[in-house]
Specification:
alpha+beta; five-stranded antiparallel β-sheet; elongated
């Protein structure tokens, strides 16, 4: 009977410790695999625990597109903005345009949980840009003009110089988690 009491006390201790860490972002960070978002198109299906990450674009009219980037839980919102700018530049090049203006932009953290009683354990950064393509001359007066070549060069340099380590992923995860649960 002594062993049963010890096991019961240990089990109770584990349960209490688990409940105590329920509100701790570090607890949620440790519960899943983490992969930083890569510059790649969103797949139709994804079997990772991060869901569908990457970029997508949607044609609005001949010169206007919506470009979206969905990051993973360990992706900084700023990185999704950079990746959306990179996709806008590369899409412009694919379409044969020299420049674009941003007509609208939205960046946010998508928060969700399994139930209302739980902390929001998933916090996914998303950025959407509505861009209009053309030449530098046709874009004057509409907004800030972004040259496709310059944007691509600057963003590629910035993204390649950013070191993604466990420490930076943990910091980005915590910032996203606190944005949802803070």
């Amino acid at each position: 009977m002594g062993k049963m009491k010890v096991c019961s006390v240990l089990l109770l201790g584990v349960l209490v410790a688990g409940c105590a860490s329920w509100e701790d972002p570090d607890f949620w960070y440790k519960t899943a695999r983490h992969e930083p978002v890569q510059y790649e198109a969103q797949g139709f299906l994804s079997f990772s625990d991060e869901g569908r990450t990457g970029y997508s674009d949607e044609k609005v009219d001949d010169l206007t597109y919506k470009v979206s980037v969905r990051g993973s839980r360990v992706t900084a919102l700023e990185r999704t903005i950079d990746m959306a700018m990179l996709r806008a530049a590369r899409l412009g090049r694919e379409l044969g345009h020299e420049a674009f203006v941003i007509q609208d932009s939205e960046s946010s953290i998508l928060c969700w949980a399994a139930s209302q009683a739980q902390p929001k354990w998933s916090s996914t950064p998303i950025t959407t840009l509505t861009v209009r393509y053309g030449t530098p001359e046709t874009a004057v007066g509409i907004g800030d003009v972004f040259l496709v070549d310059q944007v691509e060069e600057a963003v590629v340099a910035k993204l390649s110089s950013t070191d993604v380590t466990d420490q930076t992923m943990r910091a980005d995860f915590t910032r996203n988690w606190l944005d949802c649960n803070g």
